[in-house]
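[Solved] Which block belongs to which protein?

Original post:
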Amino acid sequence: MHTWLANAVTVSRLFFFAGCIWQLGSGHPISAIVLFSVAWGLDAIDGTIARLIGQETSMGSQLDKIIDRMIIIGSVVFLIRYEYLPPMSVFLLVKDIGLSIALHLKPAGTSFPSAGTFGKLTSVFQGIGILYLFFGFSGGVYIVILVALLGGYVAVGYLISFCFLSSPDTV
């Protein structure tokens, strides 16, 4: 079967992200945000493909988490750098900073737990928050606060799961 398909979708997200950064640096913010949206949207597809064709692997899960962090953290940093997002947008990254720490603390030979409902919800709100702030809609501070609180909850859940071997949803 197509054991490479889900991982190919995951890795393709890096090319869309690179295009996003290139467009930002070239002064084309609208094309950059379109490329970010594609990279962000493909995140929902890679795992679905892996599950549908029965090709979920630990490596694929790790690859997805690492690329997720690269895209979200990189996009927010570059969008702030080029002044398309306000500095408070850094709080959209609470979950990703916590998950990056958790990835490094994960005991060798153990699988990384699922993001759970709150983790997936936080990811959706992160993308919405980036788009919302990018287009300058009012009330962006409320989205940032919501994402920061959800992200903190998820990040603490991951860290606790390694100490007490429970699921992130049981915090």
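(Second protein starts here: sequence line, then its structure tokens.)
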Amino acid sequence: MKIVEIYTDGSHIKGTDKIGYGACFEDPDNNEKLYKLSNKLNMKAFEKRYHEKVSNPTTELIAVLMSIKSLVGLKDHVFIVYSDYEGVQKWLNKKWKIKKKYILDIVNEIQKLLKEHEKNRVFFAFKWIKAHSANPMNDLADKLAKKMSDENTFHQYLNENLKTNLNEKWD
């Protein structure tokens, strides 16, 4: 089984509708770096459904969810998913009680996907990583999430440049 590390991060600029999430990981089939990013989370729809504002922990979970969704169809892999928000691992490993309905909904969707992946012998482990710890992949996920929450036009740029050398600077 191939082991692949995924680094995820979320970003929400408080007091604004600016939200983003980023994830980066090696392409499990050709060993190139593959970066996936989206800002499809609709703040207004979220607020209408849950009567609450999006929080940064929400974007952290969405980054994990979108990463797992992007891997549908793979077989025989183990993914180690890193997040710099402790709650992601605690909620997914059932060490923290979930108090908010929207967090429960996202965790349930992730759990459902995990069960589907298991049918193809694809397994996930969730681990915490210290933010801003000089890990290039974690720092990249952070930069992608912040860039996304800051500039909506970055989504188009990223789609055009998905495969990028990790050593390239993202300033």
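Accepted answer:
You had them paired correctly. Confirming on the second one: The helical segments are 43-50, 56-69, 86-92, 101-118, 136-150, 154-160.
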